[in-house]
Design brief:
It is a single chain. This protein is an alpha/beta fold. It has 15 helices and twelve strands. An eight-stranded mixed sheet has the order 1-6-5-2-7-10-9-11. Strands 3-4 form a two-stranded antiparallel sheet. Strands 8-12 form a two-stranded antiparallel ribbon. Helix 10 packs antiparallel against helix 14, helix 12 (394-423) packs across helix 13 and helix 12 runs parallel beside helix 15 (459-480). The chain is elongated, with a radius of gyration of 27 Å.
Length: 491
Amino acid sequence: MLGVSRYRFTSVPMSKSTLQKRVEIQGLATAILLPSVGVFGGPIGSEVGELGPLTSVVGIGLFQRTVLTLQRAGIRQLIVLSGPDEEQLKHSLAKGPRVTIPVRWMPIREFPIDDPRTWEALAAEVRGFALIASINGVFSRGLIEQLRQDVRDGQAIVVAQPRSQQGERSTNSGVRLPIPALGRDTTTTTRLDESTLLVAELLVVPASLMNAANVSAHEKGRMPIHQWIEQVAGDGRLHVVMAEEKQGMWYQSVRTPDDVERAEKKLFNSLKGEFEGFVDRYFNRKVSRGFTRLFLELGLSPNSITVLAGLIGLVAAAGFGLGTYSAAIVAALLFQLAAVIDCCDGEVARLTFTESPFGAWLDIAMDNLVHMAIFAGIAVGLYTAQIGQEDDWVPLALGGAAVLGNGISFLLVEKAQKIKSVVGWRTPAHAAWANVMLKNVASRDFSISLIGFALFGQLFWFLLFAAIGSLLFACAMVWVIRPSAVALPRL
């Protein structure tokens, strides 16, 4: 007889406290993963050319990427209906970023997904809703977060997308998707019907629906999930969420090598820092993708990429210190290269789930170190070029002011970030001002302007603007983090 006593815990390392704390909310906190079969039936990888759950997409296997994405999106418990590749899947989770949520393993040979009793046993482990997904697709964190927001009592949710690419195949195995069920959150203006939609192997069902009583006796041969979807659709309780890349809620089926390319393209297109300027968005990010792919192939960590970008920036600063026109041009180009590579550390971190507080601090610290070195290098170069003249001290004074302003700004930005994460700002207006300042300090836009100043031999004016700008920015940061802008500590 089927029962939950046959569950087995994963060998993935987890803290004892994580295992002891069970999620008690009535929302969407549990995911049921099907690595070797499709949600709507049929084995994964059974056709010639099809790929499996260990297929690598941007350096991470599909199964591992699915688990880590769900973890980042707020899922707090995973149940895996595993096939013969269970040990390989466990091994894949043991590598790379740590899985910190409980993972339970159930052998599909003992708990077949076409047996209603399997789902009844699973329902006992689900509080509220369960997300059911096959491991043959890549999706965004934003899509899962949207699904978690959209859950409503008694309502099931399916994910669909327009059939826009040639060669895409439907995986819904006969499930009828009534278009009137499109939910209120759908933003697409395209006229849709069943022939234009692809149903993703990703859906959300209430635990109350995962009951053997909901499976008709005369349809025992059909997948229970088929019957659940058709039942809630007939009752008007089916909500369809459209997966759209422009909304940050995308899904890409991965069954063939061409699908891998599409998934990787969507992953790269989704990369964007919290703060980035015009040059980052339209130049640096475009160029950095090639370097990011190279660094992923070489296996470089985000922190090592940060250090590499910093070293190139310091070499550029030394070039400015030579004081010649040609050296200044080369130095400006090297600084621009450093700015491009500086984009890669965050891209690699987000693609491989290796973001860390230390990495974020190291990135900001290296940026400011390089900027101060650049200001100092330009000052030394200008001084060297006009040494012996009456006003040869002016570049050194401007360089010192620029370095001082940048150093003070760095310390104040550190303080502002701590206020944001620990205490918070007193009003939304204060928070908005703080975000504007943090966005500007993270901007690399001046790297392009530096090339222009170097080309026209006007580095003195660049240094003058840098000195004035860094001091004004420091003053603005003092105003932003003034005591009246900081929320009162909680008693």
